[in-house]
């Protein structure tokens, strides 16, 4: 898609999950390797190359400085004490304290640099993740829970932040220190060093065994956090329903079940870590015993000095520190790996609705829409439309009526290309929807539905969502045309009134008029009214009808309605049943026909003379 940035594209390339997939489809995913995680993180981090190089220089200097103190210790024991060099004791103290001060400064600088790099990497990653989610089609959001997606953008990315900001620097420092000290120890005494290094394969094997189990447990932890987040999001937005049905205890119990899963998974992780660290500590003590015993044996044979043994033990501690550090940060690494897998599941998901290569921009349309031999199903086992034909004349009002599930809303979704049919073609003014860009198509479509979406913000901001570049005068004009200015002006803050989440501070009729004002401001050529007045009282419906009278003239309009009173003036009415058009005509023609439309009319107006 054209709206992906370069960093997003680079993050999607190479390694990881191996190809695009339908996230949320139940397909089993191969776990991502830690190596691929570090490679992708580096892809982002290299954009901060000056800071990264400065951090590397600090790491090298830290590793070199850590050689000094053991050497000063060796020199003190082997030279200063036997030769009673009192005049050099002050220099030794200055050397040790100076090394400590410089090490502290370098560690502060390196930690600050890595924190800055980590924050920038996470900033780019979170934005890439959000942009990619915005580029995905409606079916992706049909398959996945809102709370789970929110958890991936917030919680999972934050977990990666811990590793990038601190653990990566520690790993790099430890790797460099381990390599340098191992080479130096081999140079001092290769036999003793090889005996010591013999314990490391056991450490690596232990780490691999526990790492696999830890990552699985952390995956469960993060999935349970997503469950908690999803439950919280659902219950907070539906709090009025919960209280109306006195379901507080029921929802508290459900919430408790989800948090218990999170608790159990965390306990499992803690137990694994509690078993892992003592094993590593035992192997470290084994290494110390080897150095102490074999070194003492060499010293008693005058093949090694006491100072060298002490320095060797100090270097041993430096050599074991990376292993000790790794055992402590393995939690972070495995938790980050699990978070990375969940993030990549989204980033590696490809939109099903994509623009073809060379798609053209749709010019201003008249609005002649044709459905030709359309087959569509949301899932493979449920057909919604079969060999479906429909024509919406340009500049006319076309209404769809029929039983629930007959495919009315699906037709609206197909016009906006929220979904693609499995076969057949939909055209607007002769242009196939698959040949034009999505943006140029949707720019010319305005949708007003029963399910009104308003954002937490001001009235002005919600109306201006129809056209972000509109002036204040245009916003006010749209509100007036939507018959909304009256109630807006009655608020003390007028257009700057905060409406609350999903417009909770407004009535149903007021929210609907704001959505119409938003559509008017967009000035689309095609209007889709999907049960726009279904849940409103008579007075509010009249206000909406007056507003629509301002919006519809000269535009192609598709009206989906159960209330037949709202479509009697439509230019053409299509009656749908089970994804097929069973009859069509004007209101009076369909009543005279005495078919399905007449039956629906009689059900809604049983006391009315159908001939009227």
From TrEMBL:
Residues 53-335 form the ABC transmembrane type-1 domain. PANTHER family: ATP-BINDING CASSETTE SUB-FAMILY B MEMBER 10, MITOCHONDRIAL, ATP-DEPENDENT PERMEASE MDL1, MITOCHONDRIAL. GO terms for molecular function: ATP binding; hydrolase activity. Keywords: ATP-binding, Hydrolase, Membrane, Nucleotide-binding, Transmembrane, Transmembrane helix. The lineage of its organism: Bacteria, Bacillati, Bacillota, Bacilli, Bacillales. PROSITE patterns: ABC_TM1F, ABC_TRANSPORTER_1, ABC_TRANSPORTER_2. Residues 1-23 are annotated as: Disordered. It comes from Paenibacillus eucommiae. InterPro entries: AAA+_ATPase, ABC1_TM_dom, ABC1_TM_sf, ABC_transporter-like_ATP-bd, ABC_transporter-like_CS, P-loop_NTPase, Type_1_exporter. It is a multi-pass membrane protein. Residues 369-603 form the ABC transporter domain. It is found in: Cell membrane. The chain crosses the membrane at residues 49-69, 89-110, 171-188, 194-211, 279-298. The keyword Transmembrane helix applies. Its EC number is 3.6.3.-. This is Subfamily B ATP-binding cassette protein MsbA. It is an enzyme of class 3 (hydrolase).
